[in-house]
Amino acid sequence: MARAPISRSARKKDANMSLIRILEEGAAERKSLDKVQREVREGHSAIRELEGMPVHMDETREQLLAATKDAVYQTVPQDVYGRFRYVGPDKRLPIGITFSDLAFLFGEEFLVNAIVKRLEANGQAAGIRSEERAAKIKALRAKLDNLERAEELAILQLEDAGHVVLRREDARPDLLLEIWGGHETAKAV
After folding, report:
1. Distance from CA of residue 23 to its chain's centroid?
2. What distance lies between CA 55 and its chain's CA centroid?
3. Cα(150)–Cα(173) distance, integer angstroms
């Protein structure tokens, strides 16, 4: 008995239904993977944000003071010290005065305090201490390691079910190899 030819619209409908079945088969796993990948991206973003945060004002002050002292005592020639020793408010300063000259004239503390006051007035006083930043980044990296492991395990589950899943381009090779080694061992058992 001869089969009736299948219409073009029927073939298209069958193809669409097959695609929908394929997508539905891994839908729960895919949602789980999407959630983990979103958390990984948020973790990387949080680390970049922490790394870009300004230094706490106390540390900024210490760094400015050290740099100012270096500038004064390493770059200013000895004859400059004598030239500015008796300059008062009614005297004109020489043209071409440098930061180190100002620091020598008014004192490092005075100059650094003026810079810090200006930073605070401009709303740039908020910052994070280096130790606090390092601790937060370390905690975020540990969380990211676990998330990236979970991500790779979810990808492997989807691949085992026959789905093709593209990995993030910034996926860490060391974690991938660690997971793949354990996954191959588990499959063999």
Report:
1. 34
2. 15
3. 14
- Are 33 and 151 in contact by the 8 Å Cβ rule? The answer is yes
Closest to 136 measured CA to CA, from 48, 5, 33 = 48
Cα(189)–Cα(186) distance, rounded to whole angstroms?
A: 5
pLDDT digits (tens, 9 = 90+) for 69-78: 776 666 545 5
Looking at the fold, whether 89 and 68 belong to one and the same domain comes out as yes
Which residues partner with 55 through β-bridges? 128
The helix/strand/coil state of 55 is strand
In the chain, the number of structural domains is 2
Question: Does pTM surpass 0.90?
Answer: no
Tens digit of each residue's pLDDT (9 = 90 or more) over 7-24: 666 666 665 555 555 555
- Taking only the tens place, the pLDDT of each residue in 93-127 is 455 567 777 777 788 888 888 888 888 887 766 77
> Do residues 59 and 48 share a domain?
no
My answer on whether 64 and 123 are in the same domain is yes
CA distances, 86 to each of 73, 83, 100, 105 (Å):
19, 8, 17, 9
